[in-house]
Every structure is written in structure tokens, then in C-alpha cells.
Specification:
Helix content is about 40%, strand content about 15%. The protein is of the alpha/beta class. The chain folds into two domains: about 230 residues, TIM Barrel (Alpha-Beta Barrel); about 60 residues, no CATH class. A hairpin with a 7-residue loop joins β9 and β10. The longest helix has 22 residues. Bound molecules: flavin mononucleotide.
């Protein structure tokens, strides 16, 4: 990277090469947020934007959203397919068909082993990035033929798993054990993070929360502003007692869920379901009523203090990482 005379902003890694993108930065799938507005803005900035399949109410709506996103960018973008326990059953097979028949070239899978869908994805020549929170799951994904994994550390927004291992351990382990490239995910927001991830063996970073707090993220300004004001202490781990841990913003609803989970005896999901229903999260993002439900947010909110465009953000991260590599790190030698 340093040995040639390339101008700035052209950091090449296995991730940029495999995904056909300019910068080694990916926007992770985000329920209710991964719509064409954000996805196209991230891709137009030279990173990889990802539409979230289940944000769309039906497989047909997903096909329409993919077409809408194509109108907004001619750069590569992906679709996230999250397979998690849901209150309402989801026709996953039909969503997969919509993805494949739309000609999508990159899929991010998450939540569960993507094995059932791998033959279909592979026969369509799709590049599969599997997001996982442990080395054993990353190795499993590699053995199933996934092209890349996104290693989501304990810091991350959403589902960090139950192992509680942070990226300072997970990433070097991934570098030692995996032969496929991996993205560092969870806790990344700036150039320091990107340089550190590359140093630890990742070929790029995946960010959720940081892209949530951008001009183009299709959510209410109040939610963005709340995250700008928040510190790294303002997240909570809910659903621990159900072994389905989720890191969310610590609002009054998250506090109520924690109080119910702290009561003696087994937590009954029925007791908390009405407060945490997915639809309430969507309504919260639309209305800006910060105590209407829960929303995923990572500890990285402690590093977020503005609401840039995706282009400003991506350029800033890349420039900062390059400066650290060229100056601070090189000067140490
Ligand atoms: C609002 C929000 C919604 C998310 N929804 C999903 C989702 O539906 N599927 C998924 O695989 N990951 C989801 N994630 C996780 C992100 O894709 C990513 O893995 C995570 O945010 C990385 O951690 P970071 O927030 O510290 O960058 C979500 C994250 C956020 C902030």
C-alpha cells in the first residue's frame, strides 16, 4: 500500500477487489434503515451499501426496492438476509428467490447458518458475506463456501451473540484461523478504527451505527441527534435471559425490559414482546418518539458527534486511516 505512488483514497484490499468497490468500507444490513436512500448513498460514496431484505413487507416489495436502488446508483450494492427468531413467520425462500432473480451480485447473511441457501446463491454466482459473532461460526461459514465473513464483536449494535468476546481478540483470531477475507464489524466509526482493523488482519470494516447517523439515513432527525449526544455508556444488552442478546439504545423501554428480565424466575417473552415489537421500532424511527420502542445501537455512539453525508463520512474515514498509516505508523519505524 505504501510502496507505490498511488494518490490518496485508493486503498486496495481483498475486500475492495472482491466486491468491486473503491474503499474498504461496508454498511451492514439495518432493519428499517437499509432502504434505497441510504444504500445508494453509501455505494455512491465508493463503499458498499446494503439493502435489508426484511425491511420490505413482501418479496415483491424487495424486488421493487432493488429496482429503485438501481435507479439511484450504478455502483455495486448488496442485500442483507437476516434469519432470526421472529414473532411472525417469514417466507425466507421467497425472499431468496427475489434476491437471486433481481440479479443481485452480493448477499450478506446473518443470524443463522446460511447453508440452506448456499447452493442457490453459488449457482447464481453471488458473493456471500456471512456475518457472525464467533470464530467457530466464521470457520463454519468458510467451510460452507462463504466468500467472506463479517466478524461482529461484542461492541456491535444488534445481536452480539452470547460469548461476549470483543474485537481485540476476535479479529486477530480470525486473521490466524481464516483463509477467506474478513470485515471487522462492531465499534468502527473513524479512520483510527479502519487502520486498526487493517492492522489486525481485516480487509475492511463493516459499520452499522455510524451509517445510521448520516444525513441520508431514512430515520427521524431526533433519533440521530440523540445518538450524537449519547456516550459509550448509553447502550443496553436486552434479551440476555432469553439467550437472544440484543444491544440497543438505553432508553426507558430498554430499562423496563431489563427490569422485567431481572425479576426472579424465567423471563417470559410474552411479558416484553408488546414493548419491543419490530413495528414499534419502525414507528420510532418514523416519528422520532424516542420511548416508543427499542432500536439497535452500538457502543460506538461514544465516538459519533456529527451527522455527515455518507460521502463526507467515507472520505473522512479513508483519509484519516491513510494519514495514520503513512505518518504515525510509518514514523514509528
Ligand atoms: C438500527 C440497526 C439495525 C440493524 N439491523 C440489522 C439487521 O436487520 N440484520 C443484521 O444482520 N444486522 C443488523 N444490524 C447490525 C449491523 O449490520 C452491524 O453488524 C452492526 O451495526 C455493527 O456494529 P456497529 O453498530 O458498532 O457498527 C443493525 C444495526 C443497527 C444499528
Amino acid at each position: 500500500m505504501l510502496g507505490d505512488n498511488r494518490p490518496g483514497g485508493q486503498m486496495k484490499t481483498r475486500v475492495t477487489q472482491m466486491l468491486g468497490i473503491e474503499h474498504p468500507i461496508v454498511q451492514g444490513g439495518m432493519q428499517w434503515v437499509g432502504r434505497a436512500e441510504l444504500t445508494s448513498a453509501v455505494s455512491n460514496a465508493g463503499a458498499l451499501g446494503i439493502l435489508t431484505a426484511l425491511t420490505q413487507p413482501t418479496p415483491e416489495a424487495l424486488s421493487a426496492e432493488i429496482a429503485r436502488c438501481r435507479e439511484m446508483t450504478d455502483k455495486p450494492f448488496a442485500v442483507n438476509l437476516t434469519i432470526l427468531p421472529t414473532i411472525k413467520p417469514v417466507p425466507y425462500g421467497e425472499y431468496v428467490d427475489a434476491i437471486v432473480s433481481s440479479g443481485i451480485r452480493i448477499v450478506e447473511t446473518a443470524g443463522r447458518n446460511p447453508e440452506p441457501w448456499m447452493p442457490l446463491f453459488k449457482s447464481a454466482g453471488i458473493t456471500v458475506i456471512h456475518k457472525c459473532t464467533s470464530i467457530r461460526h466464521a470457520l463454519k461459514a468458510q467451510s460452507l463456501g462463504c466468500d467472506m465473513v463479517s466478524v461482529d464483536g461484542f461492541e456491535c449494535a444488534g445481536h452480539p451473540g452470547e460469548d461476549d468476546v470483543t474485537n481485540l481478540i476476535l479479529l486477530p483470531l480470525a486473521a490466524r484461523r481464516l483463509s477467506i477475507p474478513f470485515l471487522a464489524s462492531g465499534g468502527f466509526a473513524d479512520g483510527r478504527g479502519l487502520a486498526a482493523a487493517l492492522a489486525m488482519g481485516a480487509d475492511g470494516i463493516n459499520m452499522g451505527t455510524r451509517f445510521l447517523v448520516t444525513k441520508e439515513a431514512p430515520i427521524h432527525e431526533r433519533v440521530k441527534q440523540k445518538m450524537v449526544e449519547a456516550s459509550e455508556l448509553d447502550t443496553a444488552l436486552i434479551f440476555r435471559t432469553l439467550r437472544n442478546t440484543s444491544r440497543v439504545f438505553r432508553n426507558s423501554v430498554a430499562e423496563q425490559v431489563l427490569a422485567i428480565e431481572a425479576q426472579p424466575g424465567e423471563t417470559q417473552f410474552e411479558d416484553i414482546a408488546p414493548m419491543v415489537k419490530g413495528v414499534r421500532g419502525r414507528e420510532l424511527f418514523e416519528s422520532g418518539d424516542l420511548d416508543h420502542g427499542v432500536w439497535s445501537a452500538g457502543m460506538v455512539i461514544g465516538l459519533i458527534d456529527d451527522i455527515p453525508t455518507c460521502k463526507e463520512l467515507v472520505e473522512r474515514i479513508v483519509a484519516e486511516a491513510e494519514q495514520i498509516i503513512r505518518e504515525r505508523l510509518t514514523n514509528l519505524l
